[in-house]
Amino acid sequence: MTADWDHARAVADAVLYEGYLLYPYRASSSKNQSRWQFGVLGPSSAAEAGIGEDPLLSTQVLVASHGLPMLTGVVRFLQLQRRSVERDLGDGRFEPVGELVADSSTWVSWDEAVECEFAIDPFPVMGLPRTLDISVPGHTEVETVDGGRLVRSRRQLHGRLEICAQRDGDYLRLTFDVRNTALPATDRDEAIAVSMIGTHMLLEVADGEFVSLLEPPDSAAGAVARCRQHRCFPVLAGPSGHRDLVLASPIILYDHPEIAEQSKGALYDSTEIDEILTLRVMTMTDDEKAQARATDPLAAAIIDRCDSMSPEAMLDLHGVLRNPHAPSVEPGLIPEIPTDVEWWDPAADEAVRPDLDAVLVNGTRVARGSRVRLRPSRRADAQDLFYADKVARVTSVHEDVDGDQHIGVVIEDDPAADLHDWYGRYLYFAPDEVEPVVEGSSRCK
User: Which superkingdom (predicted)?
Assistant: First the structure.
């Protein structure tokens, strides 16, 4: 697997589990009584009967040929797994219960999910049409726990992928139809049990490239307009600038989507805002957290991750805005704002990153994480005198509308330093009021 695939698969994993589990991550929560919002392909006639979703997901993409294009990829979805809790009555007899408590462990009845993935083996595009079976067998397993057992069961799934191609001017239009071919269900519970959940595709082309359907070149505009989608939104995947991968997602995305580097793990709550959800988890009582841990192993992982999050990691989630179409650049010194851009223009804000930007002090790059010794000289605040010769940790670098630069810091030996950093309550000094502390060097007074 290439780095491009790793990049795209990380986003595909987020698509696969989007909406799998909603805050407050407890089975008893009303929000978690109706899950599985995206990419659900129901059995035949379920949508018409009002008990499930449409059975079809269909997408069309364009390929610009560089020779004899070869296609490969994967179809992915979740298979519902019902986890039933049963109490041990003795003599080999068990009784279904909603909750089982034994010592420090608790289990509840709950619908889990199992990942399913089908490879589309490499084949020449000119070898289309092609049909692939994507059916999944059913399964039952029993896990013994204190005081009873957990019975996990999955229904058999029936599905089919059909691929065809046709020429449209200088381009090849590829059509992918994923269809749930299960027999009609009798009720909602049965319908979701035989549905394909979170369905999406990752597609790769060799000896050719995919055309962006969001920002096509002028020469492809007509062909793009003739492409048809059904419950699917294909976008270029992988790193920016690469055109060999497409993610056909049930969620609206932009080209080259990526996981925010500040996100330390999935929270599953659709269109999640990590900081808000993390703070909400931190406010949950011990009893609420215990209920969430009993609901699902993924919920337990969320609780544990939030409980152990450092102030620095929490700060990274706060106030970070990105332009998804902006080119990726290495962080450097505070950038120059173009002379034709006024300070109130949003474009001026987009250029700066106080958490990454730097200034040069005596030839040394100073940015977030740098250690400096304070030399207050401007007397903007009488209390600055108390900070003279103190060692501080840099938290941010700013430039005001007059072009003056400011360095935000917290004092290292301040017992509340981490708290100040958490809340963004910094002291500010000019670059000529700090002296970089070079690690490993000695300093004579």
Answer: Bacteria
Interhelix angle 297-307/286-295, rounded to 10 degrees, is 140
Instruction: Record the tokens describing residue 251, joined without a space.
Output: 């969620």
Beta bridge partners, 364, equal: 361
Cα R_g (the chain), whole angstroms: 28
Give residue 440's pLDDT.
Answer: 46
- Number of domains the chain contains: 2
What would the mean pLDDT of 68-85 be, rounded to a whole number?
A: 95
Read off the pLDDT band of 329 (50, 70, 90): very low
CA 57 to chain centre: 22
The DSSP secondary structure of 119-176, one letter per residue, reads EEEEEEGGG--EEEE--B--EEEEEEETTEEEEEEE--B-EEEEEEEEEETTEEEEEE
Residue 333: inside a domain: no
Map residue 297 onto helix, strand or coil.
helix
Residue type, 113: A
Q: Is residue 372 part of a domain?
A: yes
Distances (CA, A) of 368 to 182, 355, 407, 414: 56, 6, 9, 18
How far, in whole angstroms, is CA 95 from its chain's centroid? 39
Paired tokens of 132:
């692939």
Q: Is residue 230 part of a domain?
A: yes
pLDDT at residue 341, rounded to an integer? 52
Of the two residues 156 and 402, the one the predictor is more confident about is: 156
Does position 442 have pLDDT exceeding 50, yes or no?
no
Contact, 61 vs 216, CB < 8 A? no
Helix axes 274-283 and 297-307, enclosed angle (nearest 10): 90
121-135, 194-208, 258-272, 411-425: least confident range: 258-272
